[in-house]
């Protein structure tokens, strides 16, 4: 099949594009994220400067664009944060967007996403020549130019559907620039003695649904890791960060299906199922399964917690990893569906690791 051309009649080469081309000639294996950092721009700005060459700006009409992704067939969805990359192959099925356009869900068995669309600002289609051939992707960015979510075509994807999608959602503005807005300053964490820990623990004990946990800590104006620290060891215990890869290894050895949550401020991506092919590459711990890849920079994990939350389905056990800024790197659960108690095999596995004596 022939791919539609996404080049404009006039190729624009602004200063940023020329600087990026020079950098790429010196470091041909440099990834876009690292190239943007070296050039002192956001990843979104770097991609936008390619509009008119191998990139096309699309209209950010999420309620129409997201369901249209199903037509592409078998793709790879990628969501990452500073320290962890989550890649899951499958088909975008069962897509829904809330009436107000603020939330989106993809709840298929393979691609499983929670989308916070108020933070989704721009989207581009990229058709890039690589050492492995032509790579096609859709890439979404927030108002600060940070990558939110990406969708890559595979050899099994439908190129005719890709061409139609580009024609349907092509933006009228094809200028090779991206307007960047300043981010909201991070709210300083409250001191522990400013939090009503007794009330927090009472609310925790009364939880009926794990999805209500976020509202609980917001009500007490507590940071997430701070809430774990104040909850008491009945509900949250610190673990050595070196135990995290060991949990993956034990889950693989015992064939315990797990749920792996990785997200950023605007998107959470979930894998549910077994993990099998585990590899180390320097300080990166990787899952390299046919349909699920995970790349965890273990140096970015500053603290690790075993967390228990009551629910109408019984206690739900998770592991939560945080970076040095208190940002959530990843969460692990036993594979389960709402209304079903967690797997005994997962609970036994998650509880088998010895907690640290004191909080980190």
Report low-confidence residues grouped into runs of 5 or more: 1-12
Q: How many beta strands in the DSSP annotation?
A: 18
CATH top level of the largest domain? Alpha Beta
Report on the biggest sheet.
9 strands, antiparallel
The Rg value, from CA coordinates, equals: 22 Å
The order of strands across the largest sheet is 1-7-8-9-2-3-15-14-13
CATH superfamily of the largest domain: HemS/ChuS/ChuX like domains
Through-space gap between termini: 56 Å
- The ordered H/E elements are HHHEHEEEEEEEEHHHHEHEEEEEEEEH
Q: Beta fraction of the residues?
A: 25-35%
Give the helix level as a range of percent.
10-25%
CATH architecture of the largest domain: 3-Layer(aba) Sandwich
The SS-based structural class is alpha+beta
Q: Note the total helix count.
A: 10
Query: On the 0-100 scale, what is the average pLDDT?
Result: 93
What count of domains describes the coordinates? 2
Shape: globular
CATH topology of the largest domain: Heme iron utilization protein-like fold
Describe this structure in words.
The protein is an alpha+beta fold. It folds into 2 domains: 15-92 and 122-169, Heme iron utilization protein-like fold (3-Layer(aba) Sandwich), CATH 3.40.1570.10; 192-351, Heme iron utilization protein-like fold (3-Layer(aba) Sandwich). It has 10 helices and 18 strands. Strands 1-7-8-9-2-3-15-14-13 form a 9-stranded antiparallel sheet. Strand 16 and strand 17 (316-322) form a beta hairpin. The protein is globular. The N and C termini lie far apart (56 Å).
């Amino acid at each position: 099949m022939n791919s539609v051309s996404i080049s404009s009649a006039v190729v624009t080469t602004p200063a940023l594009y020329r600087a990026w081309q020079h950098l790429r000639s010196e470091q041909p294996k440099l990834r876009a994220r690292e190239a943007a950092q070296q050039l002192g721009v956001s990843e979104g700005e770097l991609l936008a400067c390619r509009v008119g060459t191998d990139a096309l700006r699309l209209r950010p009409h999420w309620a129409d664009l997201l369901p249209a992704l199903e037509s592409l067939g078998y793709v790879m969805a990628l969501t990452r944060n500073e320290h962890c990359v989550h890649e899951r192959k499958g088909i975008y099925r069962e897509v829904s967007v809330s009436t107000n356009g603020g939330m989106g869900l993809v709840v298929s068995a393979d691609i499983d996403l929670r989308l916070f669309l108020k933070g989704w600002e721009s989207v581009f289609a990229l058709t890039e020549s690589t050492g492995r051939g032509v790579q096609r992707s859709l890439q979404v960015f927030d108002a600060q130019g940070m990558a939110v979510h990406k969708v890559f075509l595979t050899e099994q994807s439908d190129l005719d559907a890709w061409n139609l999608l580009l024609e349907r959602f092509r933006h009228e503005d094809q200028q090779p620039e991206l307007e960047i807005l300043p981010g909201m300053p991070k709210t300083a964490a409250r001191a522990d003695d400013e939090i009503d820990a007794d009330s927090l623990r009472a609310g925790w004990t009364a939880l009926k649904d794990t999805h209500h946990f976020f509202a609980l800590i917001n009500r007490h104006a507590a940071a997430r890791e701070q809430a774990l620290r104040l909850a008491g060891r009945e509900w949250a215990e610190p673990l050595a960060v070196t135990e995290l890869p060991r949990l993956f290894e034990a889950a693989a050895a015992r064939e315990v299906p797990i749920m792996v949550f990785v997200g950023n401020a605007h998107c959470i991506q979930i894998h549910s199922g077994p993990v099998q092919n585990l590899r180390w590459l320097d300080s990166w711990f990787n899952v390299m399964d046919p349909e699920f890849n995970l790349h965890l920079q273990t140096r970015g994990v500053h603290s690790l917690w075993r967390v228990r939350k009551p629910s109408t389905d019984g206690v739900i056990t998770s592991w939560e990893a945080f970076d040095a800024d208190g940002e959530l790197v990843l969460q692990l659960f036993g594979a389960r569906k709402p209304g079903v108690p967690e797997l005994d095999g997962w609970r036994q596995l998650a509880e088998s690791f010895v907690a640290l004596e004191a909080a980190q």
